[in-house]
Automatic annotation (TrEMBL):
Native organism taxonomy: Archaea, Methanobacteriati, Methanobacteriota, Stenosarchaea group, Halobacteria
Residue span(s) of domain Nudix hydrolase: 75-184
InterPro entries for the chain: NUDIX_hydrolase-like_dom_sf, NUDIX_hydrolase_dom
Disordered: annotated segments: 1-66
Protein name: NUDIX domain-containing protein
Domain of life: Archaea
SUPFAM superfamilies per the UniProt record, alphabetical: Nudix
Amino acid sequence: MTVLAPYGFAADGGTERETNDEANAEVTATEIDPTTETPVESLTDPGSLRGREGPTVAERTHAHEDPDHCEATAAGRAVVGVTNDSGAVLLLRPEDADRVFLPNTVVEADGDWADAARRAVAEEAGTTVRLDGVERLRTVDHVVGTDGDTRHQNTTWHVLFRGSPVDASDDVSSGVDGWRAGWYDELPADPDESGDVIGDVRAVLD
């Protein structure tokens, strides 16, 4: 089952802080080329891509008040930047807010990020995609607590894939209640979102 959430913030409505300063970002490269002709069929160990040529690798810290946040027992999150032949990106928007997200889902322990990515797009936007490469990797340290009294809980991987529709048709339809799926050639003006969520959209649009 897909778990759609603002992956820089708390899915349960609680408070979550994202540390996103450049001083904490480690940039390396991998052998997976985002423009490769060979689709990504499987990815079970994102850490194996460190130190090779390809996507950037960054480090983040997310602080949660609730220890039962959406990645508390997960291996990480798969995010998919799907673009069509015109260069437009597939985005999801809640019907009651001016926010946009790439299709994404939690990857459970011992899961496959590529399988989760394809499933997320199918369930959230009603279309089948080919994963063309890995654009970004992030390690996310999750800490729990309030008022400076925090403890490290777990570390997860966020993987941003580039993808393209398998079907030539641009027809999409959200399978998530309260959300709309559509193609955008630019970001909506002043979206109510920031950090890695919008950074990932911009990386795919560039």
